[in-house]
Each structure stands twice: as structure tokens, then as C-alpha cells.
Amino acid sequence: METKMALNYQGKSQKRSAVEKSINAFLIVYLCILLGKATVCTTLKYVWQSNPFNDEPWYNEKTKKERDTFKVLRMFTDFLSFMVLFNFIIPVSMYVTVEMQKFLGSFFISWDKEMFDEEIQEGALVNTSDLNEELGQVEYVFTDKTGTLTENSMEFIECCIDGHKYRDCTSELDGFSQPDGPLKYYGRAEKSREELFLRALCLCHTVQIKEADQLDGLLAHPERRHTYISSSPDEIALVKGAEKYGFTFLGLENNFMKIRNQKNETEMYQLLHVLNFDPVRRRMSVIVRASTGKLLLFCKGADSSIFPRVQQEEIQQTKVHVDRNAMDGYRTLCVAFKELTEKEYDRIDRQLNEAKMALQDREEKMAKVFDDTEADMHLIGATAVEDRLQEQLAETIEALHAAGMKVWVLTGDKMETAKSTCYACRLFQTSTELLELTARTVGESERKEDRLHELLLEYHKKLIQDIPKNRGGLKRSWTLSQEYGLIIDGSTLSLILNPSQDSGSSNYKSIFLQICLKCTAVLCCRMAPLQKAQIVRMVKNTKGSPITLSIGDGANDVSMILEAHVGIGIKGKEGRQASRNSDYAVPKFKHLRKLLLAHGHLYYVRIAHLVQYFFYKNLCFILPQFLYQFFCGFSQQPLYDAAYLTMYNICFTSLPILAYSLLEQHISIDTLTSDPQLYMKVSDNAMLQWRPFLYWTFLGAFEGLVFFFGVYFLFQNSSLEDNGKVFGNWTFGTIVFTVLVFTVTLKLALDTRFWTWMNHFVIWGSLAFYVFFSFFWGGVIWPFLKQQRMYFVFAHMLTSVSTWLAIILLIFISLFPEILLIVLKNIKEKNHQSSRKAPDSLSARPSATPLLLRTFSDESNVL
């Protein structure tokens, strides 16, 4: 497995959302409540039965077998019976509903027309629906540069040959030329050097040619007879650049590379070896034999990997050109060559074949041969290729910052190029103070670890020790008045993450991490793919476990995509490895804005409300059952009929909350997208913290008490019918259940801010179905039932005016605190907005506190 993807593959980790972890914590609480209820009832049963009259009344004497049963066994059996009676408090059906919500909700991302790209005719893709809500909790965004922040559409801009710049030239190289660097004359490079440089561009690559399609002997596009294909857009840009200057690559045939020179002559070069590019060497080479028999090695790569391997006196005149192009935001490559003798080639050929055939340490042996071969070369020049920024990139970056997210750029590009891109996309502002931890600031001396330690302590003192801690304020807001940005390269990162044993620098990593977390933006350049994953893992494992998101477009980004909590793939021009290994895939970086700020926000709010609502309605359901045991001698007598117990979570209350969790928009999508700071109001899993959970729990307990004791006091009237007859225990339970179903359903109606026909259908349809089912279930004598205990109970119950009044009154009492809270908050919101001159500003919005407690009436920007 020597493919680029396999070598940089990090391995998949189990991804679980913060919502799932909260559900498990809440489930433990409710499991404790279940055990507590069963224990209390079991204990009180035997306390109550300590009175012989209660234990064995005259009308229910025990059998001999019951008297001889071991008491501990009877207690254990009773405990299990109470567990079965109260087990409905555990919302098992919630897990089914959550999975349905996640699966069905994921289609809204795929169906979003605003995330459809006309160029590639593809929209967003959802590879996993388990992490929808995590999109609304992201704190750190790790992004690649090339193909993610940029178009990955390369265009050859200029080149430098022996220090002379060539730009806007004609095919005969007679355009303007001027020297760069410390040259004392103006002119152009020698003709032979120009041709050698262009031959290097035509030969040192892995580009293939696809001939244009022909229709009945005619070319479909006469102006373009062939198309270049390569795994890297850079190589295509360089080949096209050479073509613009008069040297055209004609393809590879029978292991011979054909090029056409400026004189329209065809030259043939035998391709002997290709030393492929890898992220460690950061260069590639080819060994070719010319028709004259001359053996040549051409090499192109990053300046940091080429300069140490060429004659030092040749570097300066090209280095100035490379640095200036990098500052302008261009991608730069240096080109070098070496002429080989037959003896040298035979040795290289033998070593390469031996390394390829090795069964052990093959990669290390190949790397050593490559290293020895690509030495003592001569520098010819350098190239500059432009990669345009993606549309709406700067606006997207600013929106993510405003939403409280920190954006880190992890790239393999040169520092100056990446830095220029960061300024262009507004990741770095003009007021941002940049802190550098690069080879330039650390140095290349033997004391570089000491220098690194000094810089880390200096930056740590500036960012942490000298800045007072933030007290209060909006969550995730920047705590520093001065914004700081950090730039680090791969070599320095290796020193931090893998310090030498004798350096005494075991705390490098913690100091570096504290500095990073205080910076508003971080740029990591010259990163290997595995280093990207290390950075993501380092932040992911910090205190508080912040939610991380990685986004990239190529195979070299797969490791960090798999490492982050949420992985996003860009459907770019470097294949589909990133999108296939990601959790979500989008065509452009700009689509990340809506994916997080709108879809992520709404998904989190919906599923958080779903989880809290399920625990709430099940507590309302079982608490009257528990209280009923105090009035039936702890005999495990159920309050509700078995049909009601079964259908409560399946039919009567399931569809309204499912529709809510799919369709609810407490704030309109346009508002969420245009006001990124709303994203922070639900950050840090705010709606599933212990405070809102306790609120919902106490609300369920309050309503359960109202249901039971309200009906209990109603039954204090000895006669509820005109003929003097009294209702029985099944009527008592049916009244409680009716109030329960109507209350929890109307509670959800109060919480709904975005009404559609589907919401109306499932809410009012569920209530109508309950009434219909109750009439139907009690209106037929079912032959498969031994006891017809519910026969005509529901219909007979509704003949009493007192029952009607009790049901309506108890529903109102149960919902009155909610109604009162909504009215008071609406009044407060109107008064607050009327006192503001600019009601549309964020400061005119109410605080986040009511949002965490209950519903979103204070954010009722409804479509």
C-alpha cells in the first residue's frame, strides 16, 4: 500500500455527538428515578402490610403456598413488578424517533438548492446523519488552503530563469524581461538556459494527454486537439505555461516523451525513471535520455527542498524572485537539473531496482536512494502559478468568526503564499499582530530548541500572563482587545510535538496549545498530512473537548477529516477521496456558512427540544401511576389500560414531536444566515445542560401532580352522574390519561413557532385519533380479551358535565405557567424593542437565558 492516500491514512475513529452523550447522562438520572420509585413502593408495601388486616383482609385471604413463600423472594418479585409497572419512564421510543429525525432531517441538506453548484452539477452530500446536530456546536474549523479556500484552478503567471523574470511573453520568448535580485545588468538569460528550463517543464511531470473526441472525422473542438490530465492542477499549469512559450508536450508513447520545440521540431526523450512526489521530500524528479544519448535528471519542488540541493552561489538571484511571488500570493516551484554519466546512471538504476524489490523497509530504502540521487544539482529557475480564491470566501470566514468559531488554516504551501492568502480572505486583519514560530524565527542553529523555548515563553507571557481573565460577557467572544494570529511551520511543529530527550522541553506542547487557543486565527504552513491530523487531535483533546470541524478537498486532507468531530469534504478537482471519507460534502467553501449557521443551528435546536420533550412527557405519564400506588395498597394495580400504556409513545404523542423536530424554525433561515452571532446562543450544548434538563423535569413533575390530584379531588364528589352512580378506577385512569395526552400535545403546539400544514395535521390529528380510538376501543366487546374492563368507559365518562369541566380546567392549569411565561416575555420584548433606536441590531435581541430554559418565543422571527 504505497498510494498517497494509504500512506497518509489515519484510521477512522468512532464519532459520537454531544447530544448522544447528554442523552446517556439524562438516561442514568431517569434510571435512578425508576429504581427509586420501585424501591419506595416495595418498601412502603411491606410497611403497609405490617398491619395484619392490611396484609390479609377477610375478603382476600392468602393461600398456603403464598404464606410459605420466602419473604426475601417475595420482596424481590414485588420490586421487579414495580420496575415493570414504571418502566415506561425510560423513553425507549425516543431512540427510534431520534434516528428517524436524523435520517429524514439529513435530506434537507441534500435538497438545499442554495448548496447546488451549477458548474459540477452536484449539490451537498450527507454520508452520515448521526452528526447533524454537531454542525450547530462547532468551535474550531480546520481548513486546507489549495482547493478549499482557493479554486484549485491554476494559471501560469510568470517564471524566472537565472534571475530574469519572464511575464506576458509571446511564444518566441521576445517579451519584456527584467532581472530580479542583485544583478548589475538588464537583459535575459542565455538562449540555451531558456530552452533547458522549458524542456524541464515539459518533461518533469506525470501529465497524460487525452485526445479530443471526433465526430464523423471532424473534431468537436478544432481549437483544442488534446486535453491535459493530471492528479495535480499545478503540473497542468506548468505544461501549459511551457506551451505558451513555444515548447509543447505531445504525450508519452512506448516510454518515450515527445515534445515540440520553438522551431516546430519534435524531440524524443526516453523516460527511464520517475521519482514521484511525496509530502516529505516535497519534490519530484525524472531521469530521461535524450536522442543524443545525454542522460539528464530534472527536478522540481518547493524552494525549501530544492535550495539545499543546488550550488549555493546559484540561489540568491532566484530566491528574491520566489519570495516576492510568494508575498503576492502565488504558488512557487523551483526547477533544477543534473547531467548524469553512464556510470552514475547505472549505479542509480541498480539502487532503485534493489530498493523496489526489498521486502523490508522498502520506503526507507527508496527515500535514501531518492535523497542521494537528487543531490548536487544546478538551479535553473522558478515558476509562479496563481490559484484564485473561491467566491464569497472572505464573507464566509468573517461570518464564522462572528459566530464564535476560530479558523485554522493547515496547508503544505510556502509561508509567504499562505500568509498572503490569509490576508486576502480576511482571516488575518491589518490590525492582527502576528506571532511567528517558523524556521526563520527559530533559526537553524544547534540552539534552535532553546530559541524555540524563549519564543514560546515570550508569546505565552504576552497572550496569557499579561492579559486579565475575561469576566462574564458573551460566550466564545474574543477575550483580548488586541487580536493575535499565529504562524507555525512543519519543522517547528515537529520540534514541539516530538522534542529531543535531552532538551527538557516536555512542556512545549502545553505552552504552545495555550498560545494557539488565545489566538483568533492560526496558520500552519509546510504541513505534512499526518501533522494536520496531529494538530486537530491536539485541539480536540484539550480541556472541555471543543467540537472541531475539518474541511478539505484532497487525499492529503483525509487524515484530518477523519480525526475531527465533523469532517467536511469539498467536491473539488483533486478527486473524491475527501468527500467519500467525510461526514458531509459540499461543492464550495461558501456553502459552509449555511451548513453551520442555518442547518446546524436548527438541527441542534430541534433534536435538543425532542430529547427534553421525550423525558418530560414520559415523566408526566408515569408520575400519576406512581402516585396511584399510595391509594391502591401498593398492589401494582395499573392506573391506565394496557392499550393506552402501549400506544401512548407509539401513536398518541410520537408524530407531533417528530414533525416538530423536522420542520421547526424558531428563527428564519435568512435571519440565521445573516446574523452569525445567533449561532453562539446555542453553543456549548446549551439546551442540553443540567439547568434546562431540571426545568423540564420539574415541569413534568408539576403537571403529573396536577393530573393526578386534580382528578382525585374531582372524585371526592361521591356522585358524578345524575342517577347517583359513581365512576370506577378505570374511569379515573382514563380521565387522567385524557388530560395527559391533551396537555403534552398542546404544550408542543405552544412551543411551535413555524406552523405548516403538516404540523396542524399531526397535532390536531393525533388528538382526534386518540378520541376516535378511545370510542372504538371501548365501543366493541373484543372476543380475545378475558376482561372487558374498558367497555363503554370513555363514552360513559363524557356524559358527565363535571368531567368535561375538570378536563378543560386541568389542561389550563397545567399549561398556565407556560402561557404566562410566553405573555410576560412578549411584553418584555416589545418594551425592550420600543426603547431601542435600532431594533434590528443584535443588542436588541433578548438574552439567551429564556432560550436555554424552554422555547424560543423571544426569537420569534418566523417565516
From TrEMBL:
Active-site residues, Swiss-Prot/TrEMBL: 144 (4-aspartylphosphate intermediate)
Single Gene Ontology BP annotation: phospholipid translocation
Protein localization: Membrane
Coiled coil start-end: 338-365
Reactions catalysed according to its record: ATP + H2O + phospholipidSide 1 = ADP + phosphate + phospholipidSide 2
Residues of the P-type ATPase C-terminal domain: 580-827
Names of required cofactors: Mg(2+)
Entry keyword annotation includes Translocase: yes
Keywords: ATP-binding, Coiled coil, Magnesium, Membrane, Metal-binding, Nucleotide-binding, Translocase, Transmembrane, Transmembrane helix
Residues that hold Mg(2+) according to the record: 144, 146, 553, 557
A cellular component annotation (GO) from this entry: plasma membrane
NCBIfam families: ATPase-Plipid, ATPase_P-type
Family: Belongs to the cation transport ATPase (P-type) (TC 3.A.3) family. Type IV subfamily.
The protein's name in its UniProt record: Phospholipid-transporting ATPase
Originating organism: Lonchura striata
